[in-house]
C-alpha cells in the first residue's frame, strides 16, 4: 500500500518535524541546483530552520544575486508608482526593436548583393566572410541531403536486384515447364500417327476380298452366256 496523503499543516511532533524538514530541504536544494544547470538561471536559495540554522544555495555568489534582486525590485516599484516612466520605458523598448528590425533588413539586402556602395573594404571583407560561412553551411546541408538520398537509392537498388533475381528464377521455371509440355505434346502426336497407320493396313485386305468376289461373279456370268461351248 502507498503512503497516505500528508496534510499540509504544522507537524506537532518535534522529531517528525525535524525529519521532514531535513528531507524537504534536501529535495528543495536539489531542485534549485537542477534549475540552475538546466536553464542557465541565477538561483539564490535561503532557508532558516525552526531552530534558526541557516541553509543556502547559490548558482554563483549570494551577494550579487541579492543586490540584483534589490535593484530589480526597486525598478519594478518605480514603474508601478510612476506610469509616465513606465510608458517611456516601453517606448524605448519599441524604438530599440524597430532599430533591430531595420538593421536586420539592411544586413539581408547586403547579403543579397544590394546597397553595397557605402561599404568600406573592411565591411566588404566582413560581408564576404559571412557569405562564405553561409555557403559552407548550405554546402554541408546539401551534401548531407545528397548522402541520405544516395543511401536511400542504394537500398532501393538492392531491393530491385533481389526482385530481379526472383523474376529470373520464375521465368526460368516457366520456360522449363514449357519445354516439358512441348515434349509431352510431341510424344502424344507420334503415338496418334502410329495408330492411324495400323488402321490403314487393316482395311487393305477387305478391299482385295471385295475385288476377288466381283471377279468370281463375272466368271460365272460368262459361263452362263456360252452353254454350247
UniProtKB/TrEMBL annotation:
What keyword terms does UniProt attach to this protein?
Coiled coil, DNA-binding, Nucleus, Transcription, Transcription regulation
Coiled-coil ranges per UniProt: 87-114
Q: What's an example of a GO molecular-function annotation for this chain?
A: DNA-binding transcription factor activity
What spans are recorded as compositionally biased (Low complexity)? Answer: 185-202
Q: Which SMART domains match?
A: MADS
Q: Where in the cell is it found?
A: Nucleus
Enumerate the SUPFAM superfamilies for this protein: SRF-like
Q: Please verify whether the record's keywords include Zinc.
A: no
Q: Name one GO biological process term.
A: positive regulation of transcription by RNA polymerase II
What InterPro entries does the entry give?
Answer: MADS-box/MEF2_TF, MEF2-like_N, TF_Kbox, TF_MADSbox, TF_MADSbox_sf
One GO cellular component from the entry? nucleus
What is the protein's name according to its record? MADS-box transcription factor
Organism field: Setaria italica (Foxtail millet)
